[in-house]
Amino acid sequence: MKVVFDPKPLPAAAPHRNGEEPPAKESGFVDLLSRALASAAPAFAPAVDAGPEVSFGAAAPLSPEAEVGDRAEEILEELEKYAGRLADPSAGLRELDGLLVDLHRRCQGLAPLLERLPEGSQPLRALAERVILTVQTEIFHLRRGDYLGT
Fold first, then answer.
1. DSSP states of 18-37
2. What is the model's pTM?
3. What is the average pLDDT value for the chain, to the nearest integer?
4. Cys-Cys link to 64, which of 30, 46, 105, 116 (CB 3.0-4.6 A)?
5. To 5 degrees, how large is the angle CA 120–CA 125–CA 129?
6. Distance CA 35, CA 39 (A)
7. Greatest CA separation found in the chain?
8. At residue 104, does pLDDT exceed 90?
9. What is d(CA 100, CA 82) in angstroms, rounded to the nearest whole number?
10. How many helices (DSSP H) and strands (DSSP E) are in the chain?
């Protein structure tokens, strides 16, 4: 296929059906803008009734079991993020240490809640203690240098 250069090309025009007028050409952006602004809604809107006020009472306090379970789950989710950053070679040691400091702070908030657990919640207590131990172990490994690149 050979491409031929035409120094005076025909202007591009939209096709139109027989018997119809071709669409009027716009002279530019200013005309387009003025038409759009002329057909736009007024700049002010009528006031909307806000409706009745809704107030929420204080939330019911969580049971100690639910609070420990929620906090342990949050810490485990953060541990997963830490594991993802640990696997990333572009992650620096300062960033990893910052993540572990945050996890340690969260564990310090979880430890006092364990004292409020009732006697029958030994499996939950063991799970929360295991989460705290895992975070402390990761802090030890990172600061000892186990994750330094070789």
1. TTSPPPPPP--HHHHHHHHH
2. 0.57
3. 81
4. 116
5. 165
6. 6
7. 92
8. yes
9. 8
10. 4, 0
For residue 67, which amino acid is it? E
Q: Which residues contact 26 (CB under 8 A, 6 or more apart)?
A: 32
Q: What angle do CA 84, 105, 149 make, to 5 degrees?
A: 35
Q: How do residues 19-33 score in pLDDT, each as one tens digit?
A: 566 556 656 777 777
Q: Is 103 buried (19+), middle (13-18) or exposed (0-12) by CB count in 10 A? A: buried
Q: Distance (Å, rounded) from C-alpha 68 to C-alpha 110?
A: 7
Question: Could you give the CA distance from residue 116 to residue 121 in angstroms, rounded to a whole number?
Answer: 10
Of 85, 135, 86, nearest in space to 110 by CA? 135
Tokens found for residue 22: 């071709």
Q: Which alpha helices (H) appear in 11-121, and where do they start and end?
A: 29-39, 64-87, 93-115
Measure the CA–CA gap between 92 and 146, rounded to whole angstroms. 14
Cα 150 from Cα 143, distance rounded (Å): 16
